[in-house]
Design goal:
Deoxyribonuclease I, Chain A; 13 strands; 2 domains; elongated; alpha+beta; 681 residues; Growth Hormone, Chain: A; seven-stranded mixed β-sheet; 50% helix; six-stranded mixed β-sheet
């Protein structure tokens, strides 16, 4: 038993503990917001589930502690945080976000409490927390990369990984917070302290800096596929770049810690400025500011030139500043000798700010649904990243020059080697995961006489009840074994979708080529094309809308010697005239093309004005009507109480293409049915 305690009490125990706690915090914060957003999405408006954000206000409890926080309280909260995180993936519906909210809420009490109790140990604690944060982010990247953007430690039997980490963290917390020697040392340290405290405003400013670092990591770095979908950048290259810079920070912190003593305040401010500016420009250069008149559409997305990636490269290269800032901010905050009531009040205000930033990030994507406030957020996606970058930079101004210098901290060679080895394994595992989950299609068109084509609105990868359902949708697609797939509402690569990439996940599992369009910074619901056969000349374009930005995907797919022109579309508008504009804009792009496959969730029913524009004006054939005939169109089964063919998910084809089969599959795996056809080659 003494040997176990000695191991858990080693000088790197804080690093190990907070690496896990930071990881669990980002996981559960992501899941909390994803679940709330998914349930609200079912009704296309906020509902009672938004009350789940109240879990972010738990620092309120610290207002009742004027002096010290009992160790036993931190231990209980820590164990609750861990248990809730481990149970959360096993839950469905509201219990899922209740568990994630409970875990997040506990962390938002534990961290400020721990900082308030660390007086006199700011040098070691701040360094360890900085390294712990970096490793926690690296673990998040590893787990998501290993499972094509879905965190593998929360997935099926791989959850054993999370349980092992949770047990390790639980044991370390027991030793740290119930160690009598540590408690007695703490008492001695407190008797020597000055009773002079910093002002509440300084404590709030420093706390705001820490919280905005968490926001940046959550919004940007915990899942590299987010950046890849912003920029159409090379996914593996982005993963390697981010992980390498994390490794540089950890290596310097362990092996050359005295380098930080050479940093001047102006260097830190300049570094922060370059990072924040490059991150903001990375988004702005790919974002489109959309005209508000129908005559300006259809609008093609500009091609991504190589120099568009320069700001991205700078942002990645300068990204270690967020961990350096975290180290300096925690050190300064500990030096303020703050009491629980002050740091609790500051973290409570910061928690309210997190809620505000959630809306700032989400509203640009749903700018038409919460008028009049949401209208002001159209094309303002960049501001959700500019604000936290700016506030971190301002918070660093509160750090005194003396805080930038660290006394020499002795670490054993063995502890350095252990931590370095752990990160090296994480780094290697991440690269291997990125490579093995990258599709490598090798399908042959030889001997094929037909193609199966599927259109599917997957509702951000959730089922009809609002629970994440990537695997249910995957199995449905596998059973159909389509050659070409058009997906709609497939853009969950934001905090509202848990920063997961359903297109990457499905393409990886199905081993298919894929094109996602448009870029997520344009704030559309997203369309994607997946194919067993090579995709070429892929591009995105936009149509006028008065409710949400409409983006569509277009590409050519070569099967043997035949080239198909594939379009995936998802129009929507508040006014009837808007959807008419949209369909006219769409068919204008089809003129003169052959072998057209035009599919999607069109949000219009047969024989509507928009339907007639497609079939009469553009001359395309409704695949379902071609196969069943107008006398049998009620066989769709979409609305058994309606005598008319009532679908809004369609596949239209060029005249002369022969449909061999056609079927709607009942909704359930998504809130839409899947519609597939088989055509003759």
């Amino acid at each position: 038993m003494d040997t176990v305690k000695k191991i858990l009490r080693e000088k790197y125990s804080i690093i190990v503990l907070f690496s896990i706690l930071f990881l669990f915090f980002f996981q559960t914060l992501s899941d909390l917001v994803e679940r709330i957003y998914a349930y609200a999405l079912l009704n296309l408006e906020p509902d009672e589930n938004i009350l789940g954000l109240v879990f972010l206000l738990t620092p309120l409890v610290l207002l009742f502690f004027r002096k010290n926080i009992p160790n036993i309280m931190l231990l209980i909260l820590g164990e609750i945080m861990i248990v809730a995180r481990l149970l959360e993936p096993l839950m469905v519906r509201q219990m899922n976000y209740i568990m994630s909210g409970l875990s997040v809420g506990c962390f938002l009490v534990i961290l400020p409490s721990f900082l308030a109790k660390s007086r006199g140990k700011e040098n070691r604690i701040s360094k360890d927390l900085g390294i712990g944060l970096a490793i926690g982010v690296a673990l998040s990247i590893l787990f998501r990369t290993a499972n094509a953007s879905l965190d593998i430690s929360q997935y099926l039997w791989y959850q054993i990984i999370g349980w092992i980490l949770g047990i390790i963290a639980a044991l370390i917390m027991i030793v740290l917070f119930l160690d009598n020697r540590q408690n007695s040392t703490k008492i001695k340290e407190e008797t020597k302290e000055s009773k002079v405290e910093s002002s509440f405003w300084k404590i709030l400013g420093l706390s705001m800096g820490l919280i905005n670092i968490f926001i940046l990591i959550w919004f940007v770095f915990m899942s590299p596929t987010v950046i890849s979908r912003w920029t159409e950048g090379n996914y593996i290259g982005i993963v390697i770049g981010i992980m390498f810079m994390i490794g540089v920070f950890i290596a310097v912190s362990l092996w050359k810690p005295d380098i930080s003593n050479k940093l001047k305040d102006w260097m830190i401010w300049t570094w922060n400025g370059v990072f924040g500016l490059s991150l903001t420009v990375t988004i702005l250069i790919h974002q489109i500011f959309f005209p508000k008149v129908p005559s300006a559409y259809p609008l093609e997305a500009p091609a991504t030139a190589w120099y568009y990636h320069i700001p991205l490269a700078i942002a990645i290269i300068t990204s270690p500043i967020i961990y350096i800032d975290f180290k300096f901010l925690t050190k300064e905050l500990i030096k303020t000798k703050t009491k629980p009531i002050k740091i609790g009040g500051s973290f409570l205000i910061c928690s309210i700010f997190i809620i505000i930033m959630i809306f700032v990030q989400v509203l640009p994507n749903v700018w038409g649904y919460l008028p009049p406030i949401s209208f002001g957020f159209r094309d303002m996606y960049w501001i959700a990243f500019f604000i936290p970058s700016l506030l971190v930079s301002l918070a660093v101004l509160l750090v005194k020059k003396s805080t930038l210098s660290y006394e020499k901290i002795e670490r054993t060679i063995s502890s350095k080697i252990i931590i370095s080895s752990i990160f090296s394994l994480i780094f290697i595992g991440t690269i291997v995961g990125a490579i093995i989950t990258t599709p490598s299609p090798n399908y042959s068109a030889s001997g094929k006489t037909s193609l199966v084509i599927l259109t599917y609105n997957i509702q951000q990868g959730v089922n009809v009840s609002g629970d994440r359902n990537y695997d249910g949708q995957l199995q449905l697609i596998r059973d159909l074994d389509p050659d070409i797939i058009g997906l709609q509402e497939c853009d969950p690569t934001r905090i509202g979708g848990g920063n997961s990439d359903v297109v990457r996940y499905l393409a990886s599992r199905l081993n298919m080529y894929s094109y996602y369009g448009p870029k997520t910074v344009t704030n559309t619901y997203g369309c994607a094309i997946l194919s067993k056969f090579p995709i070429s000349n892929a591009e995105s374009f936009f149509m006028y809308s008065d409710e949400e930005q409409i983006g569509s995907a277009q590409a050519q797919i070569t099967v043997g010697t035949t080239i198909f022109n594939v379009f995936v579309n998802h129009p929507s508008g508040d006014e009837d005239q808007t959807t008419i504009y949209q369909q006219e804009e769409m068919v204008s792009r089809l003129t003169g093309l052959t072998n057209v496959i035009f599919m999607g969730d069109f949000n219009f029913r047969p024989y509507s004005v928009e339907y007639n524009i497609t079939t009469i004006t553009a001359g395309l054939e409704d695949s379902y009507v071609q196969f069943y005939g107008t006398a049998a169109i009620n066989l769709s089964g979409i609305d058994p109480d309606d005598d008319e063919y009532n679908a809004i998910d369609h596949i239209f084809l060029s005249p002369g293409m022969i449909v061999l089969d056609s079927q709607y599959i009942e909704k359930g795996q998504s809130d839409h049915p899947a519609y597939w056809i088989e055509i003759q080659l």
